[in-house]
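USER: My hope is that you can spare some time for a protein that puzzles me. I am handing you a single protein, as its sequence and its fold in token form. Walk me, if you will, through where the backbone shape changes along the chain. The protein I mean follows directly.
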Amino acid sequence: MKTLILLSLFSTYLLAKCSNVEDKAGQFFSSGHTNNWAVLVCTSRFWFNYRHVANTLSVYRSVKRLGIPDSHIVLMLADDMALFSHKNMELNVYGDDVEVDYRGYEVTVENFLRVLTGRLPPSTPRSKRLLSDDRSNILIYLTGHGGNGFLKFQDSEEISNVELADAFEQMWQKRRYNELLFIIDTCQGASMYERFYSPNLMALASSQVGEDSLSHQPDLAIGVHLMDRYTFYLLEFLEDIHPASTANMNDLFKVCPKSQCVSTPGHRTDLFLRDPGSVLITDFFGSVRKVEITTETVNLTDPIQQVEERPIYGEQQKQTYFYVDQLPVSEIIHQKPKQKDWHPPDGFILGLWTLILLVFFKTYGIKHLKHIF
């Protein structure tokens, strides 16, 4: 009898352990995505909006560090003067390998919506396209000046929460994403995700409706704030994340509480099909790499044999030209500029006539003015 009880307890333990392993495996493979993309947008120009550029570049630096390559990042910067996001100048957010895809006046509402929906002209290069599919996890980050239900683009136009929600619905209908994480750092940011209705979409905002999203770290040397509060603490959180990290979205929701942000960060998860506690941070901020397993042995020590190319009979061998040979640099450097035809500067003729009239009035007076005309 005791043996049967022990056997039943042991079998129960094995079943529980197996189910636990299956749950962990299911959690690992539950995302179902095979590639990651990021669309990072700064909508503000000019020096006094330094912090918005630093916000975007900070997130850009984090996603690149965690494995998303530039080929899968669409970076839109209305201006690009930000260099550092910390007072001690330790963290250079610009770096040496930043690839800006949309710059300056290219950052418009139209271009942003076209990138999301894929409605771009055929001449648009691959670097400016969001080439995602139904297996793509997409991170979309926006920062700038906003209000209740809108986000401004360069103080000249704005995108509404309805337009943004419809764009995400187009993406879902066109099978352009598997799961989407939307983050916005702006005043009244929560109003931008109120109208979302597409599935598999999770949203975070730096402030609630009626609240301002405040800046952080004023720098007296340059006269502006270096970052916004929410993105500052988001960056601080991401600096501790590594590709094998087990941190999940519930940890991200705790970033920048009201005691630090002053505003109240918000999030929305009712449209998301998975439990946020099972969604890893690296599901959106990291990258999935395809691995092909082979049982064959690959020898990497043997030198590669160069195949000698022989010209085909009757065909004239083509001569190879190097770029340096094709571009006559020395001739361009020593080339003398052509002499331009001289033209009087603007206002020269008018000034000359004025001088003549002044001399005439001083010499003969107004009564002799009739002799001129």
